């Protein structure tokens, strides 16, 4: 398995991965909408023997410091429990840090995302429609964010998810 940046040729396969992984088209549409709006900062695919088996997207968000939203993360069912999602997330975190971003926010299962350093406590001071125990944050380039409170806003495409 390799993890690499998506190419234009991957777009149809990414849509399939997202639809199959989530059992609906909403997350695939989110990816398309983020790309179309110019809010997708980078997108990675996990490829196994020529098959796009996983996908992750990092998008622009408004925050008191340069921050990204991690969403969605998807892996085809037959590749789950194989480490594909973890590799995508770890490489995405490393790429975000190398590019100078200061934090990443994610909305998801705390038991899963804690292993990468995401913490609901670090997100608790931020005002967001997604605030709660499933909104987590990961500071990059150090142990703390430059600000521990304020308003954060995901790209407008997220509002369509309902």
From TrEMBL:
Can you name this protein?
GCN5 family acetyltransferase
Provide the taxonomic classification: Bacteria, Pseudomonadati, Pseudomonadota, Alphaproteobacteria, Hyphomicrobiales
* Cross-referenced CDD domains: NAT_SF
Q: Name one GO molecular function term.
A: acyltransferase activity, transferring groups other than amino-acyl groups
Record PROSITE patterns: GNAT
- Work out whether the entry's keyword set contains Transferase: yes
Pfam families in the record? Acetyltransf_9 (PF13527)
This protein's UniProt keywords: Transferase
| Domain N-acetyltransferase, chain residue ranges per copy | 1-141
Source species, please?
Answer: Bradyrhizobium jicamae
